[in-house]
Amino acid sequence: MSQANNGGGKAVPVIELRNVSKTFGEVRSLSGIDFKVYPGEIVGLLGDNGAGKSTLVKTVMGFHRPDSGGEIFFKGKRIDDWSVARARGLGIETVYQERALCEKQPIWRNMFMGRELRTKLGLLDVERMRAECSRLMSEHMGFTSAAVHPDNVVTTMSGGEKQGVAITRALYFDAELVILDEPTMGLSLTETKKTLDFVSNIKKAGKSAIFIDHNIFHVYPVVDRLYVLDRGKVAGVYDKSQITMDQLIERLYHVARTGTLS
Amino acid sequence: MSTETAKARPADNRVAPPSWLRRYGSQLGIIGVGIAMWLSFVFAAPAVFTNIDIYKAFAQTTPQFGIIALALTFVVITGEIDLSFPSIMALGTATFCLLAQAGVPWPIALTGAFVVGAMCGWINGTLVARLNIPSLVITIGTSFLFRGLELVLMNGTGVPLTADQYPALHAIFREPVFGVPVQTLWMIAVAVVLWILLNRTRFGAHVFLVGDNPTSARLMGVDVVSVKTRAFMLVGVVAVLAGVMTSVYGYYFWPTLGDGFLLNTIASVFLGGTSVFGGTGSIVGSFVAAYIIGAINAGIVSAGINAFYTQLCFGLVIVLSVVLQTIIERRIRRQSITGR
Ligand SMILES: Nc1ncnc2c1ncn2[C@@H]1O[C@H](COP(=O)(O)OP(=O)(O)OP(=O)(O)O)[C@@H](O)[C@H]1O
Ligand SMILES: [Mg+2]
Predict the structure, then answer these.
(1) Would you call A105 and B208 a contact, using CB atoms and an 8 Å cutoff?
(2) A67 in a structural domain
(3) Chain A residues near residue B216 by CB distance under 8 angstroms
């Protein structure tokens, strides 16, 4: 499993899963997953509906605890008390497939959800959160700051605007690793382009990303490496240099039919 | 991402900043209801309602349940309910009495009582949040549990709390300060502290998030179990404070303490605009609503209305104000009643 951009296997992965399985009652969503993301690398995650992509992402985030036997490493250090708060504290941010918004709350509360800004006294810095939120909305979401107000509740926003909040939120904290689970779902062409640019910019900034999207034309151009998941297993890992888009598409069909890549 | 695409977007001015009215709609609604009710009382019984005594009377009694309503607001915003606080009031106050009778100095006895209140809240919170048991169900159960424990401990008998024996307690919880009923000063103090807790701390922010959408909150790293547990503990501690204050006011700890508090308190929270669905609510609303309910109680009695009518009037006023408030709030938010 060589990787394209780090000159051999020397670099320590930002995040690594070893032999991770996840069972919900009788459903085995992940089984024996080995997964790595290196610094400065964009990793694509492909697979059918229900393949386990979102489950994998939530396990990386510490939302799901892996079944016993699975291990999670952050920058080479094994971490046993993994949690979302811990993961975010270490610089991992996620745009979840379900967006994870609290819709009755104003935008600023959503933007800083779980990582609220505080004053020196330890109290919430509501004014700064509002101001930052306005700024982010005009700079990244394309709202002019005078028009959209951070005090607006999320409920009444359009689907794409809600998504904008989720994406902007992941961007704000300058994460080491950004995870995007189907970020372009339901976005207009221009918004999709902005999101894809954003993924490329992550790489330029030397940060890493995990990118999930069903549209292979979105995924292939921006990623360095690709994992193909099938029914909870890693069915294949490719460097982009090893595979053309056409070959990849053909293999995906093959996986869907047979469950193997060979 | 680039500002060029931003300028090309035509949809901007569609999203207007929410007006002041819109943002504070529910608080304004309840304040409006309060003023309207007060005016109607003044017109109905001017002799009573232009006299300061009536205000002193209900400024003493309202905080007895009102401060619990302030704390209960947190639990309701998390989308839960606590029906066991009347029993916690009694169990906590019983703890205080037993410790004090055993010769423990009053500040320590009081602290012990608060610890018991916090423990009761912890039990409620743990059962609700960790084991995912509906709070409506389990707090009925713990209500009997705490009450039963208290009755067994006290053997069903009460304890006199005279000013001679407990001068400090009477000074803190009973004596007016410059003519202002100290109970209301306590209510204001608790309201200020809890307002800050709800609106200016991480815990408060998480209370809103947890009540709005617990899954989203968890995905973003909010510890839902801990937030809910702490909210229940807050109610426990404040219920004990109210229990001691109420008992000192009556010079006596009755083992039945808390009877008759349940509906007044819960009505204050809901009348104050806190949503039964969780995620929204305010301390200001509960504060004003508690005094409205206190005023109805005091007003009906002192206006000389036949006692048989008390409940009827009470019910009418509460139902009407909730309906009015809902309509006003929807108007302000420019939503139709059915949401269409
Ligand atoms: N909390 C859960 N409880 C039970 N089963 C779950 C849970 N989360 C996921 N699953 C199951 O795990 C499997 C993988 O789900 P997952 O959401 O990871 O798929 P996915 O690859 O993200 O699919 P999609 O492309 O549709 O988003 C599915 O069969 C799903 O039903
Ligand atoms: Mg998914």
Answers:
(1) yes
(2) yes
(3) 98-102, 113
ipTM of the complex: 0.91
- Among B240, B249, B89, smallest CA distance to B163 is for B249
Q: Which two tokens stand for residue A151?
A: 């005090």
Note whether B220 contacts A: Cβ–Cβ < 8 A: yes
Q: What is the mean pLDDT of residues A69-79?
A: 94
Compute the distance between CA of residue B188 and CA of residue B174 in angstroms, rounded to an integer: 15
* Residue at A95 is within a domain: yes
Domain holding A225, by residue range, is 15-104+153-258
φ, ψ of residue A67 in degrees (nearest 5): -60, 160
Residue A178: CATH number of its domain: 3.40.50.300
Is the shortest distance between the CB of A21 and ligand 1 below 6 Å? Answer: no
The predicted-structure confidence for B252-281, as pLDDT tens digits, reads as follows 999 999 999 999 999 999 888 888 889 999
Strand partners, A46: A228
The residues with which A23 forms a beta bridge, in sequence order, are: A28
3-state secondary structure of A11: coil
Residue whose entry in the numeric block shows the structure tokens 């053909």: A250
Residue type, B240: V
Tell how far the Cα of A49 is from the centroid of ligand 2, in angstroms: 7
Model pLDDT for residues A79-115, shown as the tens digit of each residue: 988 999 999 999 999 999 999 999 999 999 999 999 9
Q: Which chain B residues have a beta carbon less than 8 Å from that of A140? A: 1
B205 token code pair = 């922010």
Mean pLDDT by 10 residues, chain B (340 residues): 42 52 68 79 81 86 97 97 98 97 96 98 97 96 98 94 94 93 97 97 98 96 97 98 97 96 93 88 93 81 71 77 71 54
Q: Model pTM?
A: 0.90
> Is B18 part of any domain?
no
- Whether residue B7 lies inside any domain: the answer is no
Structure tokens at A2: 């060589």
C-alpha A232/C-alpha A53 separation (Å) is: 8
> For atom 1 of ligand 1, which residue has the closest CA?
A24
- A130 in any annotated domain: no
Q: How far apart are CA A238 and CA A248, in angstroms?
A: 9
Closest listed residue to residue A228, CA positions, set A214, A244, A218, A207 = A214
Examine the pLDDT at A1 and tell me if it is beyond 60.
no
**Cβ proximity of A88 and A49 under 8 Å:** no
Tell me the CA–centroid distance for residue A97 and ligand 2, in Å. Answer: 6
User: Any chain A CB within 8 A of the CB of B223?
Assistant: yes
The alpha carbon dihedral of A46, A49, A52, A55 has a sign of: positive
First to last CA, chain B: 34
Chain B residue with Cα closest to A63 = B219
For residue B15, give the nearest of A190, A53, A142 by alpha carbon. Answer: A142
- Give residue for tokens 């979401």: A141
